User: Fold these one by one.
Assistant:
Number 1:
Amino acid sequence: MRFMFHVLYDAAMNFVQDDGWAISSHIALSILTSMFPFLIFVTALAGFLGSADLSQEAVQILFQTWPEQVAKPLASEVHNVLTQTRGGLVTLGGVLSIYFSSSGVEALRIALNRAYGVAETRPWYVLRLESIGYVMIGAVALLTLTLSVVFAPLIWTIALHFAPHLEPLDRLVTFSRFGIATLVLLLALVIVHKFLPAGRRTLWQIFPGIVFTFALWVAGGAIFGSYLAEFARNYVTTYAGLASVMIALVFLYMISSIFIAGGELNAALLRARAAAEKEKKSGAVSAP
């Protein structure tokens, strides 16, 4: 208990010293401004692959784990943007969409570099190209996941035709949509913590922060959703037509703070283990 209290206290103090609240604001705004260019790129890519309707399903999957009060108005605005006629992937707009989408990845990189206390030595253009690569891989992965979700009901119907006794599992298959979104979220956290910041860490070293982040995201999302169910009218009164944007920003600010706190927790554990190892070695050397 003393060890855990020391680690949590160290993580909290470093969160403040590393400007965690300010970086959370930067991440929240970067994600919100990057979301629309990213989904525009996803839509263009889906159209290039011959199935533009996949982008609408991709939006639903992307917002699957968000509180309904946050996701519903934002998804509506995204839908309005995606239904506009656009050029293909090779147009200037498509290139700019990819570039601006990478700003969200860069914001996450800055936050984790500060949390882990590492200095970035790679050139800025290498980092930006890497972020663009993450955006393109993420878009392809999202469309691939969407395609599997779209075909899942058809596959299940065929399976029931040949094996009717599987019908009681129908509800389980319905809930699998949320389960898939959850697994994708966990995989994204692993990739971001392991490969995005400078230096290298093992899966065991980043595991506590990932579990901490995911657990608080689930709890925070439920609490924030309950709060909006009671007090969403306050946002409408204060911000009028900007209420949905402000609600999304506050939600993103909350999950960004939790994300940074997860990185700080991992860093605090690494420092605590290093100090324990150093003390153990110094004790062994001083022993007769």
Number 2:
Amino acid sequence: MPPVDTESGAPPRFLIVVAAAIALGLAVVVAIVGLTSPPEENAAAAAGPLPLVPVPAPQAASAPCATLLGAVPAALRSAGTELTRRELAAPAPPASAGWGEDDPVVLRCGLDRPPELTPTAQLRVINGVRWLQVPGAGTATWFVVDREVYAALTVPDTAGTGPLQQISDAIAAGLPPAPLRFG
């Protein structure tokens, strides 16, 4: 047992200084390791493949879907954050892509006509593409309704407009407009 100061019962000052120096040294080592370790190159990749539930997509193997999936960006901007494209978990639904980690943005192509698309449905035009918004719990799914194939972009409510604008740009650049079909 180390000697103690008989008046206060505390360990000698020398032992307190040594213990403080050791603690400070460990804190410096942890800080240096944290600062010099390479940053996570891709947080989405670290999360592993993105599992997607299959949905009916009878035209997923079509040429327009292949064109669209080939034209989408590797990263999307969402509310000031860059969302990188994720690998999809096997078995991956055809003509699908996902970006981001916790609340991913998901694109699916070749879907059936959304039942919400009626002659009186309110559509929005974003960067030359007509979209039908279908709200959900914590997300919204936007259907492209003026191209040869239907595609859907599901975005979390926390996302900004960036993903919708960037996907609109890819659609406008690669898929010509088509008349609306109501049934």
Number 3:
Amino acid sequence: MTKVINRTKIATALVGIMAMAGSGIAAAQQVNVAKLQSEDAKTIAASEQSQKKIDSLFEQSQDLLIDYRSTIAEYENLKIYNDHVARLVADQEASLASLQKQINGIEDTKKGVIPLMYEMIDALENFIKLDMPISREKRLARVATLREIMEDSDVSTSERFRQVIEAYQAELEYGSGLMSYEGTLDINGEQVAVDFFHMGRVTFLAQSLDLKNAWIYNNETDEWSALEDEFIRPLTTAIRMSRKQTAYDLVKLPVFAAESAE
């Protein structure tokens, strides 16, 4: 009986020990679970923090990528523009070089043009003196003006050359068409008021204003010879035609013909 009781006590004691042990183990497990949960929470928090950093770095990398691409695009645009400007500058430099060459050529041309203009003026004066005395005083006055211009520092070389050419063009006009003008003619020492008329350089005539006398210029003797009365009326008509006072028509006019050489 006693043995049974003892066994029961021992069993009870063992159960108590086991209960205490189980209680200790459960408590230990709870502590471990809490620790694990805490560590998991820390890990999750760390993971979330790391993810946030990763997300932030990713966003920064995307922004940097966008900036990089924008910079590359801007660089390409600037390169194209710089190449364009470089071509323009090269073209301008070539134009400036060509212009400078032309300017240098102009200076060289001036050195040749000035003597040429003097020669042209001398030739023009000699021609007028040898030509029929058609408006001779007026033409010689034009030559004198050209000589004054050549010595005027305020007149440019181009303007001088232009006026010389205009003088030559004026001389060409004397050689074509019907022209007339008033003047005086020395006849035997007497100044007679006349209408001068010339048909180009084919013939040079003069008629007194009273329409009673007429003369023809002799190229060989540089003198005026009286015309027959039959030419007075046709000459009057020709003078009126040159002034557009009557319609053009056929008229009979004398032409001085040099004697043929024997």
